Amino acid sequence: MHEIELDHVTCGYPNQQVLQQVSLAVEPGTVLVLLGPNGSGKTTLLRALFQLIAVQQGTILVEGEEIQQLSRREMAQKLALAPQLEMPQWPMTIEETVQLGRSSHRGWVQPFATEDRQHVETALKQTGLTELRQRKITEISGGEWRRTLIARALVQQTKVLCLDEPTTGLDLKYQVEILSLIRNLAHERALTVLLTIHDLNLASCFADQIVLLHQGEIAALGTAAEVLTEKRLSDVYQTRVKVVPHPEYQTPLVVPIL
Amino acid sequence: MQPRSMFVVSRMLPLAGGLLLALLVGIHFGAVNLSLSEIQQAFTDSEEANQLGIIVWQIRLPRVVLAACVGAGLAMAGAAFQGVFRNPLADPFVIGASSGAALGATLALLCIAGSVTVITASSQVPWLILSAFGGAVLIVSAVFVIAALSNLGRNAPLLTLILAGMALSSFTGALVSLVMFLNHEMLTTIFSWLLGSFSGRHWNEILIAGPVIMASGGVLWMMSRPLDLLSFGDETAMSLGLSSGKVRLLILLAATLCTAGCVAVSGVIGFVGLMAPHMTRIMLGPRHGLLIPGSALLGAMLLVIADTLARTVIAPAEIPVGVVTALMGCPFFLFLLISRGRQTA
Prior knowledge:
The complex is a heterodimer of chains A (258) and B (345).
Chain A: E1 4-13, E2 16-26, E3 31-35, H1 42-49, E4 55-62, E5 65-66, H2 72-76, E6 79-82, H3 94-99, H4 103-106, H5 114-126, H6 142-154, E7 160-164, H7 172-189, E8 192-196, H8 200-206, E9 209-214, E10 217-222, H9 224-227, H10 230-237, E11 241-245, E12 252-256
Parallel strand pairs in A: 3-8, 3-9, 6-7, 7-8
Antiparallel strand pairs in A: 1-2, 1-4, 4-5, 9-10, 11-12
Chain B: H1 3-28, H2 36-44, H3 51-85, H4 97-113, H5 126-150, H6 157-182, H7 187-195, H8 203-222, H9 224-230, H10 234-239, H11 244-266, H12 272-284, H13 288-312, H14 321-344
Helix pairs in contact in B: 1-3, 1-13, 2-3, 3-8, 3-11, 3-12, 3-13, 4-5, 4-6, 4-7, 4-11, 5-6, 5-11, 8-11, 8-13, 9-13, 12-13, 13-14
């Protein structure tokens, strides 16, 4: 059984369809990277998966169940999201923020139990936040905030983890650190990861599979070597590029030509 | 005991103690100052008919208890509105509850009083309370309907709610002004109601407002975790398993009911609903599970103190308690803002 399955999904906003007839199946334990120019539908695909935008046609299955049939709470037990834009409003601590990721298992009033605290411990440790747990989220760096969002998604204990541009606004060190963390978690916990990103070369290094979106449709799907070809990228991004082998790995390296 | 519960107890106890002290001080001061032993005597004596018993049971106690209820209610509603709107500037009146209540009360005063110029004890006129309550609920419902209509198919009604609230508030405010302008002889009566007061309130008001405030406050407290989740924004809250739309509506309804209950019996008392949650957040942190009961205790304490000042400073006359809360609250609030800014700088 596929972990996630999109079958001819069309969705968008009242005056504009963003995704058109997208079909996609993701195997368990895969790191799938969604690539594409601005407005190609990467974030919309994630939003459709989380029912944050109505699917107009087609079906989305998660673990074989139709997503429209699930309540919000059931969905949060199957899918976790680390969103792209989220501004902390009140000065909660990192630990409190992460703990709230357990809400889907406890509902509105049931207090958090030992089990929840253990999951929080583990997630803090995995994201390297144990020492910083008492820091206020309004006073931490961009990288620490990203890691907090990932930790909060991890404690949901879902099989699917979605990250919307987890590296945006981070310097190179944190970009690599976050993506390595995500890939290790995916392989350790057999998580299925869907993430959107703009950097083609980071995608090339870290993805098991890449989906290249173009104007709401899937332009290509496969491994980095299969998807990231000169002609296709030049067409989709309308920019001339050269694809060369990575000096260290077997993956392609994309360089723009000015 | 776990460190967390130690923290809770160590921070909540002073607040509860402070409220108790404020209540005692409120009972102590008045036209006749009562000693502690006299207060004790009034409480233990089975004979309530004597003068001491009358002062404590019929005058002072209902007044401080009502002030405490209203303070708690406004503070809880304020904390909830700030949480839902993710905006520290929100207060219980942000979506029109106060102006609606003012309109309701004004119309009731007009109908009941007719040509009578002075209404001393509003407890004589439960219509006033009901009318103010109805006005608040009516205007807030109108705000909801407008926001819903203008947001059909869209996903971010928060801003529309605030804007519709502001627009309708101005509109009803203008209506109240018009009524006042056309009825000169009612000016003082209406105006003093608008400024907020506990003058002449008795157990009747507590019987009406108390249950409303307690029930809606209880609902808000039960909504603590949803409020925490909503602070991350709607979409994140949804992805964490919350049906944001429904929950937010429930919270807004409870907070509005709570506000309407307060305004109906006391008029429009500003600043407590804004200030108490902020002060509590500094003391207890931003988690609503502590913030809401903490704000309730602090709001109750602040309003009991404010009301005690209102009726003693220029005794035998009284200052409207809304004036006291603003005079007392504003400088203190600004001090907090500045000192907190310094801390983080």
